[in-house]
Amino acid sequence: MQIFLEGKLLGVDDCLLAPATRDADAVFTGRSHWISLLSEVLPRALLSELGLAKILLGSSGGGRFLMLLPIESREAADAFLAAAAAEIGQLSGNALKLIWSSTENLGDWTDVRKRLNEGLERRRGAPGFDASVTVADASAEEYFVTELGFPLRDAETVCWSAETPGRVTTSAGKHSWTLAGLDSIPFARHTAPSEDGTEPASTAVLAGRAGGVETWGVLRGDVDNFAIRMQRAASIEEHISLSVMYKQFFAGELEVLCSMPEFWRKVTVMYSGGDDFAVYGSWDALIGLAGEVQRLFHRFAETNLKDLDGLEGKTITMALAMAPAVDASLGAVFEEAGQRLEAAKSASKDCIWLLGRTLEWKQFAEAATLKDSLSKMVTEFGCSPQYLRDLCGIYRETQSRVSKRQARKMGGERPWRYHRRIRRILNAARPGNKGRQEYQKARAALIADLIGRSAITVKLRPAGRVALEWARLSAAQA
After folding, report:
1. I need a surface site. Which of 62, 262, 317, 422 has the fewest CB within 10 A?
2. Residues linked to residue 353 through DSSP beta bridges, in sequence order
């Protein structure tokens, strides 16, 4: 008889955001790499230790793994995972926890999955499991920085040893696995290099590489209703197929995208999971990267998920948090991006939180086009960048002065007031009359895009507000 064994990591954000005594950003990056690799390496190491075929590994990555084992291996597997869990708790100050569950391969997959989930819940609620976070091992931060920091970028293999069952190393070990090739562990690890290429580019360096205002940010993305999509899998084969497809998409596409000329010096990957990802870098590159990831994911869903009913797992939501200061903590900005992502997913799906607004992806594309039109007024028609700040003021005044309910009672805002104000702003900023006809056409199109084409009412569009802020940041002096 065979058993299914499922493992899961809990407390990922608590581990990532735990305080650090040395370089906090380097420790944060090392922790994220460690967490990403644990759910890939541990099941492979277990199979190797038990002398079992690697084909018994069903799915792995994204903080979870699922495998098929002979029932005779259950006790040995429990001992292996207990030792790994103990060191994982030690390295993370008990913030990160490994739980697992096993059940016989009997009945339909839906029944097996239910029993596995019930087993995980029992372990989650076991006495003593929720012990308070303690101080991590003194060598933990050194391990995260030296083994899983910048050296991981060029490492060909990762290793595991029984003496340190909760660690993944890039040096020697009893068992090893490649990070490149057909039979490798899928792992996105692109790191923007410093100017001399000897270490990762700091957030301050990434801010300096941004176009316009010098700042950086964190972009996080998450597949909408991924858990529901996985729950609908009718067989173990479908479950594994979906898990592998999503994981390979994020690991593969992120690595390829970040190697493109417009991203490779500006973006660093934190992690890619089974249904989510996080990167940090120059703010302008992150906006472009968000659009590319969404475009590729849409194509992925159309190609691979077209035969599945419903929209679950077929759309993606993202959020970009910008650092309040160049020297801000990477962990703090990462946490804010997570909060913005949760807010966006609660309000809608298939959208992005960007520069103070939640936009559908169609609106995001409109904002990108409008941003180019706004920038064109500066680069081609000689308008001062000050006009962008003046236009932003129109949005702020309207939102603070008139509520939506009041606007409906009054029959809407009077659009000609905004047309007149925008014309005055643009004319005051534009020197000379060169190309006046083209300028007037561009100005008319710009006004229509910002406030709509209605002759009776006006609604300042969310995409327009984002485009204005985007253009203002792009036009800021370095």
Report:
1. 262
2. 319, 358
